Amino acid sequence: MARKQHTTELGCIACEELSDLGAGKEGWLIDTPNLLTSLHSRSLALSNQSLILIISWDNDFSSSSQIRLSLSPSIEGHISALEWLVFDDIEVVSVGTSNGYFLVFSVAGDLIHKQFIYPARITKLGVRGTRKDLMQETLSEEVSLVMPGVIARFDVADLQNMLRQWFQETQSDFWDQKKRRRDPDEFDRIHYQIWNVSKYGSCADAAITGIMPPPLMELQTNFDALSIVPFNMRNAAYGLPSENGNFLKLFWYLNSAAFIVGQSSQRYYCAVTVGEDAVISAYRLSEDRSRSLVGAIISKVVPAAFSTIASVSKVIWRSDSTSSKNHEVKPQPFAKAAPLTCLKDHPRKGEKLTLSPSGTLAAITDSLGRILLLDTQALVVVRLWKGYRDASCLFMEMLVDKDAASSSSTYSIQGKGDYSLCLAIHAPRKGIVEVWQMRTGPRLLTIQCARGSKILQPACGIGSSSVSSSYVPLEVFLLNGDSGQISVLNRALH
């Protein structure tokens, strides 16, 4: 009887350009220092401190392109984080540097955006998007930047507007054969939020899990303000008799509570961090949204108008003297981050954090070879695995039910409800990849893999305005660095 195959080969990334990143020796993919990887569809981006290599494959054919960064060690530093940003019709590569700069490049290697965030090493770029189908509503979409003890957040809409404007300007200037060159001072600043999350020590990894309700004190304050209005005035406003005061009072408070949650002057996010001093920490991040509509318009129009005037002034009164330029950039002040809870268990240290698509679960690896499954809403560890040192985790979706799995072979369309959320655990010391059903389900698969292998996941699409009629499940890919073969873990179990 033939052995069941749980992976499907997609292509090979082997090429001569990989030697610039350390390829050629056994285990180079996991042993090469400062080597970063990011996957998107059928393209893989790899980078060292100053070079980005993009490899695309299609069956037996592969192509590659290089982006060499001209970074100043004293200003930008070197590449320390890498991630694809994928919109409907836009694909770009984002980079974080060791000195706190956020860069965005086109696939052709053009520098689209450059912005200073904070004077610290950016260790991770996280993309949280909405995986839409006909039964799913839109959630908060963001790009987060993780630094030791600091986390920053860009709204996807702001990044999308910047990218669309750049590509439109590039297409309109296509007739001009001169290469577009931008001075670092010409990049418009994109609004972002930044928080200090080092209350319980510096963090090794972090993630924004989603929007959370406001604290009870804010709700109480708003209720107290509402109680100032006499109930007979409210009754008259609704055209109802005053004798229904008790009923109307309850009705008013219930509706006011819903209004306050939806129309709060502050927006709050939940952030989970892992680190040396505290294995797990959680914070409530506040975002000031109390500006009026006029203030919001002014904040958008005035900087754009000032930028236009400044550009015209440079053309009219351009001077050869550049000695007066000041390259020193001051970091943005921190927004409020209120600590919620922490777990300290010396000598255990938190190492890596992986978030589920909905943000309700997080898989956390520690220095003692354990994997903790955290409910990010209740902030409770709901499952624990032991004996997985140096492990990597990624969430995926599989057709676990036999009926759903058998229907997949008949080309029927599966919806989100047909798939089960699972956790893929790569244990390099054991040479295996295991797949466990969430939250408390059994181990579904055990797949053997070569020593120099790594599990990857494509960057999720963000800023999409279209809704697909078919649901695309979350998949995990397996890259064998020594052979160059890349495979996908099959969706169906049976």
UniProtKB/TrEMBL annotation:
This is Rab3-GAP regulatory subunit, N-terminal. InterPro entries: Rab3GAP2, RAB3GAP_N, WD40_repeat_dom_sf. Residues 28-221, 261-456 form the Rab3-GAP regulatory subunit N-terminal domain. It holds the Pfam family RAB3GAP2_N.
